[in-house]
Amino acid sequence: MGKSLSAQLLQAGLVSKKQANKAKHEQYKKKKKKGGKHKAVSESTQHAQKALAAEKEQARQLNRQQKLQKEQKELMAQIGQMIGSAKMKIGKGDQAYNFADNNKIRKIYVTEPLRDQLSKGQVAIVKHKEQYEIVPAEVARKIAKRNAEAVLVLNESQQKNDPDDPYAEFPVPDDLDW
Q1: What is the mean pLDDT of residues 8-35?
Q2: Domain ranges of the chain
Q3: CB atoms < 10 A from the CB of 162, how many?
């Protein structure tokens, strides 16, 4: 095997040993400063790295979406459990109670006492799996915290006494039917 260039120059007497050592030291410092051998990153490697990063981001998005779906499913299960344990039996009512669901007017038949409770805000109408159920107001508020769209009718009692109300001395009768 041939000698290095510095060894050949030294043997020929063109450089001194001190100069050769100095040049060798400079090369070492230069190599160390650059972090060793610097390999040029090819275009195909860059494309592969970009594709891998995009694939990782897509996987993160998919995991996030699956996590949201799982949480939504758990919320629906909780709501279903709360409705199942607290729903009231409607029975065969003779009074129609109209309410809005997705810009459509729906009708549910209830008894007279249940209708009064609905109007006073003591009970509420909720929707779960395309079924309408009547639950106590406290349960409806808990359901509304989890999913506000599930509670269709929850009348809040509005017994605020406004001092400037000109009709304050004329209360609405309880037996008023619309």
Answers
A1: 83
A2: 47-158
A3: 8
